[in-house]
Amino acid sequence: MANGAVPNGSAKAADPEATNHFSANNLAPLDASKVTVTLTKSPKPIPPVEELVFGQQMTDHMLVATFDPAHGWSAPEIKPYGPLSLDPASSCFQYCPNVFEGMKAYLGPDGEPRLFRPELNMARMQRSAARVALPPFSPSALLALIKRMVLLERRWIPRARGCALYIRPTIIGTRPALGVSASDHALLYIILSPMGPYFRTGPKPISLLGVCDAVRAWPGGTGGYKLGLNYAPGFEPQKRAAQKGYMQVLWLFKEGEGRGLEGLKVTEAGAMNFFVVVKRADGDLDVITPPLDGTILPGLTRDSCLALVRAHTPSTRALPALPPATRVHAHERTLTVADLVRWYAEGRLLEAFGVGTAVVVVPVGRIGYEVEVAGKEEKEVRDVLLPEYEGGYGPVARALWERVVEIQEGRAEWERWSVSCEEEA
185-199 pLDDT, tens per residue? Predict the structure, then answer.
């Protein structure tokens, strides 16, 4: 497409339900068919995969659309990447009505860009926007715009295994006033960033320090939504964990006083969902993750891992990398530090790992937890040590990583999880 603002009639319009909702208020819906494209005159060089640092290199273009209470959504615009101009009193700076999603685009064996279960990202973003009372939008229109952006920037998608083009759709409140109320103005934008492999020198288990004096989320709060305000409170505990020799925080929620380790519920690991693998008396394996109780983000990778474990049997082989005789059972149940310590003492705690969009699956090698010791003012940190495996990953974590990645990259079909960007949203 030539330079200049050119309407794109190929993208699918907003879905009728969203259109009707806006029409009742005489406001324009988010409409992907109205997108215009202005191409950069100075395309950037593509950096080598080995030089990619997560989230630091951006592609040539971005997409923006605005919402105001008088007109609704503006026509989306794809234009050269650059700064945004916002009023200093904008709600996003004062009260944090900011939501985002983390997605990836991959090149399939046919060279076509693909997305992984994008409809779940759109549904979660819609829920998150509603939680902080941002203006509504059409999920199908947003997905059509994301596909349009990925197709435009397809040269940025790394071809190496485990690499991808990271996609960050974001909606922020831009009401230009300091009143403490919901933002009736918003800015939607989409930016893209190529990313290399999470582990540059091969998989290495991470270490976690259990923290309960600061919480990531609480019952009735916002932990189950993808909001910017959930992340900044984790930076200081993360620094403290690093000072004690741990790479990430294991978020704990304290239930009641005097219950000791039994009262310390495990929620998430850093910004990842958390899993453990426990050996049963009959030799089968339990794959356990905390339930979605409002304090846990409903991660797409989490959901995918649970679905694959549940589907795996010696006959279906949903996880081909597992030995044929291995039987696994998925559970969403409360996990406590006492559980981890007991399973460790019994020799039944075989694996722990975190899952998320950026990392897919990352093994955990050490989990620290604090205990009170008689005669000492400061708590003592003790460790649960996970078994060491060749290559870093335990059998279940490796099987999940390999299966999810091959589905994401279109090298294996599973439940139509891999979606071509050429398909209409």
Answer: 999 999 999 998 877
